[in-house]
UniProtKB/TrEMBL annotation:
Listed name of the protein: RND transporter
Gene source species: Roseivirga ehrenbergii (strain DSM 102268 / JCM 13514 / KCTC 12282 / NCIMB 14502 / KMM 6017)
Record keywords, A-Z: Membrane, Transmembrane, Transmembrane helix
Domain of life of the source: Bacteria
Segments traversing the membrane: 20-40, 60-78
Amino acid sequence: MKKGEQREEEVKGKGNLKLAIVLVLTLGLAPFTPEPHIWGKIKWVMGGANGMQIMDYFDLVLHGTPWVYFIVVLLKYLKKS
């Protein structure tokens, strides 16, 4: 791999990490009060998910996807470093 290509890949990796952080801080934690939505859904699932409906599972996936993306990008970034 040439020096220019390596530098370009490094910049791209940092850009993906920045995007992942923005997604986690916005959609991943929204709404912020009284507690982050994803945290409430995780507690609900850990408590047995009693009364959860399809919309609640969709909500869990919606707010959880940025976290999964962040973890994948972070692991790739750390692996390259």
